[in-house]
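Sample 3 of the quickstart, ligand fe (iii) ion:
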Amino acid sequence: MPESGKIQIFSVVENKLVEVDRIAWSDAEWKSQLPPAQYRVLRNHDTERPFTGEYCEKPQGAGIYQCAGCGTDLFVVGTKFESGTGWPSFYEPIHSNNVGTTVDRSFGMLRLEVHCARCGGHLGHIFNDGPPPTGERYCINSASLKFVPAAN
Ligand code: FE
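Result:
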């Protein structure tokens, strides 16, 4: 469960860190608020099957990906790359404040889990086989994201 209280996250619209309330809803509240596919990934740490997600392809124009649970800004299109894995892949988040990580030992693997810092929603995992400049690969479920095209 995410903690309650305040958190500083980076807002793309405001182009600065802003203080917001953490979202610490109960499981029942999340279940009533989210569509089933989003609930399974964000709250139950499910992984969508590769090449099935809405955001596998890189979009034509600029934009950002927000948390499908709480709207926190998570990734920009410019950091998305084609990993060949069938999951949306990014080499870095919008801001380190906007995501959190936990060690995930499930399924007999040692992986770094990544989640939304504000609502605790599960996003995916981070691997160290990504491209420059970071060498990291944020392997993210489409179901945990909501794409917002840049205004022209
Ligand atoms: Fe969130």
